[in-house]
Amino acid sequence: MISTSYDVSKALTVFKATGEITVQEIIQAIETFYAETPTKLTLWDLRHAENNTVSSEDIDRIIEIIRRHSDEREGGKSALVVSRDFAFGMSRMHIAKTEISKINISYYVTRSIPEAMEWLGL
């Protein structure tokens, strides 16, 4: 499950994933985020999520959705907070692919919420 909360004063959206999540749930959370008024900053708290089935092709699907909407968040920042090695590696792959795709949103992966908040400038 992915829950979403907003801190309008900080222009921050927090996505918190728990338990087994699917790529489709991630895509739905992204689509819903962009359908509303997207904030410049996002924090994806994936520390309690379980998903060992994300593939490189799934990341490409996610990036394509982000690319379609990236002008709405130009100059935005997204921090991904993970606890597992697999999620860390897949997050690094996501970041590399967004850089190659020239998406004007900065991404960062860490294992620490405080470090993510600091990188976001909060």
Would you write up a description of this structure?
The protein has 122 residues and is of the alpha/beta class. It has one domain: Transcription Regulator spoIIAA (2-Layer Sandwich), CATH 3.30.750.24. The chain is 42% helix and 29% strand. It contains four helices and five strands. It has a five-stranded mixed β-sheet, with helices on both faces. Strand 2, helix 1 and strand 3 form a beta-alpha-beta unit. It is globular.
Given helix and strand content, the structural type is: alpha/beta
Listing every helix as H and every strand as E from the N terminus to the C terminus, the arrangement reads: EEHEHEHEH
Largest sheet: 5 strands, mixed
Instruction: Label the overall shape.
Output: globular
What helical percentage do the residues reach?
40-55%
CATH superfamily: STAS domain
Spatial ordering of strands, largest sheet: 1-2-3-4-5
What is the radius of gyration computed over CA atoms, rounded to a whole number of angstroms? 13 Å
Number of domains: 1
Low-confidence parts? none
- N-to-C span: 26 Å
Q: Give the strand tally.
A: 5
CATH topology: Transcription Regulator spoIIAA
Classify the beta-strand content into a percent band: 25-35%
How many DSSP helices?
A: 4
**CATH architecture identity:** 2-Layer Sandwich
Give the averaged pLDDT, no decimals. Answer: 93
CATH class: Alpha Beta
